[in-house]
Design goal:
By secondary structure, the chain is α+β, with helices and mostly antiparallel strands. It has 8 helices and 6 strands. Helix content is 52%, strand content 17%. The model has no long low-confidence stretch (mean pLDDT 80).
Length: 371
């Protein structure tokens, strides 16, 4: 049917356009956040792009249902505004008849959301966790790249190496800045190489034929020292391997686990898929536009229903993780309540009634009597 194909095509195109805009904004905001963390030394600079991509993948299962919801509202709202829905109603096509093409959208979008929710999102969260843990477990100067300034953890120092001689296994023309014990120091050296203490296992960066400048800016008590050999201890990072956050665990691992925190994560992943058809029914009910009122009241109610639905799910997930809700019940009671509300709204829209049945108040008739 032409109407069904047109609805599916327009909603998919609108969804992709809106998703592209939201993802672009998300990438810019998260990039700024990760760059700030990289400047402070909490994440590696070279991994900022990887972390942004992983973070974006981790949020796609939440973004996609919202974008589908907005796309259906925009498309059907435009059809109402252009009186196309009036023409369809005159041809015997009611809002209930649009559930068939929406079912195709639900299957497509639901399949994509399920792929992200059950597989790609946990994988992205786990990979991002591993990247950050790998960086925190490194030694201070691991990954020095010749020709680039490299900052140590938490901004305590800066290293610069002009080149690395592979044959001699040494660095050449080294600049080191370190801050310790309330004083700042700069060390320049012609050569340097790594050495490991056989007794303690500590690693050192041994500099040869250089000069050390020590002091604080604005003070006159600077010390200058020339040296033939100067060893800088490379601070190791203690690393305790963990399984990562529960959000990054594979679905097969958390399935069947009765622990409240694990069960809440499983129900939350399922909820991201179940929310797709419920939002589609809400969008079909809120898409009607009253010419006298405009689109604003319907859009306000649509977003109010979305935020009420998602916030109720989030609150229920918190209760479930604390053991206050039986894992056998999970979040199904929330879905049941909003399915009933969405069905009631669609039923009243089908009969051209107001979405909320306000009671009618009859005012007494005033009769004029001559004096």
């Amino acid at each position: 049917m032409i109407v069904n194909r047109a609805l599916v095509q327009e909603v998919l195109q609108t969804s992709m356009a809106v998703t592209l805009v939201i993802v672009s904004i998300f990438v810019v905001v998260r990039s700024l956040g990760f760059l700030q963390q990289a400047v402070q030394g909490y994440v590696p600079v070279e991994a900022v792009l990887i972390l942004v991509v992983l973070k974006m993948v981790a949020y796609m299962d939440v973004i996609i249902p919202l974008m589908m919801y907005i796309a259906i509202l925009m498309v059907l709202g435009r059809w109402n505004r252009d009186n196309e829905m009036v023409v369809l109603a005159a041809c015997g096509i009611s809002p209930l008849n649009l559930l068939k093409p929406l079912l195709v959208l639900i299957l497509i979008v639901g399949g994509v959301v399920a792929l992200f929710s059950f597989y790609l999102t946990p994988l992205a969260i786990q990979k991002g966790y591993e990247v950050e843990q790998d960086y925190h477990s490194r030694s201070e100067i691991t990954g020095i790249i010749p020709g680039k300034f490299m900052e140590t953890k938490k901004g305590r120092g800066m290293y610069f190496v002009e080149r690395f001689d592979r044959e001699a296994d040494r660095y050449e023309n080294i600049f080191v800045y370190r801050s310790s014990f309330g004083k700042e120091g700069v060390v320049v050296s012609k050569y340097a190489f790594k050495r490991t203490d056989e007794l303690t296992g500590d690693q050192f960066l041994v500099l040869n034929n250089g000069t050390r400048y020590e002091g604080n800016p604005g003070q006159t008590d600077y010390r200058i020292m020339d040296f033939e050999t100067y060893a800088l201890r490379i601070e190791p990072k203690t690393y305790v391997p963990t399984a990562g956050p529960i959000k990054g665990w594979p679905t097969a691992k958390i399935y069947g686990d009765r622990h409240p925190a694990v069960a809440s994560e499983l129900h939350w992943r399922i909820a991201k898929v179940v929310i797709v058809p419920v939002l589609a029914v809400f969008a079909l009910a809120f898409s009607f536009v009253n010419p006298r009122q405009g689109r604003l009241p319907s859009m306000i109610m649509a977003f109010l229903a979305y935020f009420l639905y998602t916030n109720t799910l989030g609150f229920s997930v918190a209760l479930l993780s604390k053991g206050r809700i039986d894992p056998a019940v999970g979040l199904w009671w929330v879905h049941g309540i909003f399915v009933v509300i969405a069905a009631m709204f669609l039923y009243r829209r089908q009969r051209n009634l107001s979405l909320i049945p306000f009671p009618r108040v009859r005012l007494p008739r005033l009769r004029w009597r001559p004096a």
